[in-house]
Amino acid sequence: MSEIPTSHYVVGDQPIALEDVVDREALEDLCKSIHELFGIGVRVYSSEGVLLANVATEHELCRYINELSGSRAACGSTVSAARSVAPGDDGEVTHPCFTGLAYRIVSLEHEGRRVGRIVLGPYAPAGLREPPPSLAQTDKRLDIARASELVAKVPRVKQEALQRIAAHVKETLELIIFSSHKAWVTSKLHLYSVRESYRELQDKTARLEQTLTRLKEVDRLKSNFLATMSHELRTPLTSIIGYSEMLAEGIAGTLAPEQQEYVRTIHAKGEQLLRLIMGLLDLSKLESGTMSLRQAPAQIAPILKEVISTLTPVARKKEVELVLDADDIACELAADAERLRQVFINLVDNAVKFTPKGGKVAVHARVTEATISPSEEDDDDAGAALLAPLLKQVEVRVSDTGIGIPSVERTKVFDAFYQVDSSSTREYGGTGLGLSIVKRIVDAHGGRVAVEANEPNGTVFVVTLPSAQARRAALPSRVPPALS
After folding, report:
1. CATH of 292-478, one of 3.30.565.10, 3.30.830.10, 2.40.50.140, 3.90.226.10
2. Using the 8-state DSSP alphabet, how is residue 388 labeled?
3. Cys-Cys with 347: which of 78, 226, 390, 398 at CB 3.0–4.6 Å?
4. Which residues of 423-457 are buried (b: 16+ CB within 10 A; e: fewer)?
């Protein structure tokens, strides 16, 4: 199979038109230089007959002939014939004019095919001495003597010189065509590459949009499933816990010690399962936006004291020291106290769980001051942040001396169901929902939660909550929407 030329490939195996690729300005400049050097008119046509360059001076003979209607018609026919005549197999042909002058037609070739022609003339052959009889026959009013004088004024060119001129013009024009075609092919290839890349990008975008739509639907179904499943499981589980409590209290009769142990195990595991189900319900509500915050004036110290009181037995049983430093904390919050209690119970319970025997968990609260971050301001108002009043916020740090969280894992721990140790033999239990719920509740209060290292070991969770004054001062567009 023969190789397809690059030019054919770019345009879909269709011949390239010379007028589409040639630099007409360069072509016109070349024709002007030829005309100035030799005094011969130069015209360049494409293979379709489109005039690409026309540099010629009208001879006095031609001007005189065009003044007579009969001669003018003959002149027009001659010019049309010279423009359309085929150069023949040799690529060059001389076309005579009825005035005795002549035209030289030279083919232009590129990549083995003819793409246009050059028409040189009219010029006077070197052997022309007087007008031929055909000139007088065009119009009876023609003055032969005057015509003869005007013929003598037309530049004469020897055949050898004409051939050299024609060869020079042909080679130069073909070089311009080659350069123009190369630039044209390059631009076409670039355009083709851009179009192909754009098409591929559109296809990928369409596939991504379809995938995103499916993922959203799967996520919606997952949330609905979790909500439905959790609700349906909670009803019979409540009965299991209730009846196990009644059995443990002896309402149905006295139980043997071994039976008491079994019932207490049932009750404990039921409570554990209930906490899991409640976590799933909370996550489902947070994701669907159906959890409401009952915001009211609140102080952080009573909330933290209640959390410590609740988890002290757990810490004492594990022999972990639990310390609270929240004295003299006076900063009013606009918050849902019950949800904040849930946040800090999760954080402190996690800290106790991952701290070994003899370790320490500390909860430290303080009031700090900060302005609205300039990055959150509009560009026009960024400078105003320098003059903004300081606004109070509460910072609560929950630190432990436990196993810690690797630095590469710290950005992932707030993802739902994510666990640092997800192996089947992991030492610590849990579903990976607690920190995800913590982050969503804190975000809903307009706050932030982050995890830091605690050298030489352990972890520090930092929760920052804006004061009620700070939330009122913030623009509505900057206040995170309350869960509704």
Report:
1. 3.30.565.10
2. S
3. 398
4. eeeeeeebeebbbbbbbbbbbbbbbebebeebeee
**Token couple for 68:** 């007579």
- Asked if 437 contacts 449 with a C-beta cutoff of 8 angstroms, the reply is no
Q: What is the mean pLDDT of each run of 10 residues along the chain (484 residues)?
A: 38 61 82 87 88 89 88 88 84 90 88 85 86 85 88 87 86 80 80 90 93 86 71 78 85 85 86 75 65 83 91 91 85 88 90 90 89 49 54 91 81 70 48 78 89 80 90 58 44
CA atoms within 13 A on the CB side of 176: 22
Q: 121 is written with which tokens? A: 């003339």
Whole-structure pTM value? 0.48
List, edge to edge, every strand of the sheet that includes 321-325: 321-325, 360-370, 391-400, 459-466, 448-453
* Residue 3 DSSP symbol: P
Question: Residue 217: exposed, middle, or buried by beta-carbon count in 10 A (0-12, 13-18, 19+)?
Answer: exposed
Q: Give the Cα separation of 23 and 30 in Å (integer).
A: 11
The fold adopted by the segment(s) 199-284 is Helix Hairpins (1.10.287)
